[in-house]
Amino acid sequence: MRNKYLLKVQTMRNKQLLIVLFIPFLLASCDLLLAVHGDDVDLGGGYRFVNRAIGKVKGIDEYMSSFDEVIPTQVLNHSQDENYIVVYQVPDLEDMCIDSVRMSQHEMDSIRTLYQKMSEIVDCYWIIRIKDNTVWGPMDEQTYRRKHDELQIEVELDKSYENQYVGVPPQRDGGRDSLM
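Predicted structure:
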């Protein structure tokens, strides 16, 4: 009888230990998931950072807002002031798809061209001028620096921010066939 009682006590202690060890891990995981996948940040001028993409809000109804994606996933870094939004993106080639049901042939061709360019650059930089919705990108870092200086943009990307993201490295070959 005493052995059964000791076994129950030991089993209970093991469960408590597992719970105590699991809770911090669970909380840390939730914070990481929210930071990476759940961000919803107002960037100004109707632009939002949502689920690692940047888009322009078209309209809002009682249930949700309508969102035109401007820069697809994975946006790993962004910064903005009242005039410009600057963005660093590593395209997620597996997430890129073309909706042939809802798009015209011209739209599909434009998106294929954009995806092809992003897949060739890999480390993509973008600039959005808020006042007139002008978008430059995707650009490699050298082209981005030149454009950034030419436009006399004051806001800078904080490189330490993108280092916080832990994810699957971008697919550098292979995924291109799915874009065509």
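Summary: Confidence is low (pLDDT under 50) at residues 17-38, 166-180.
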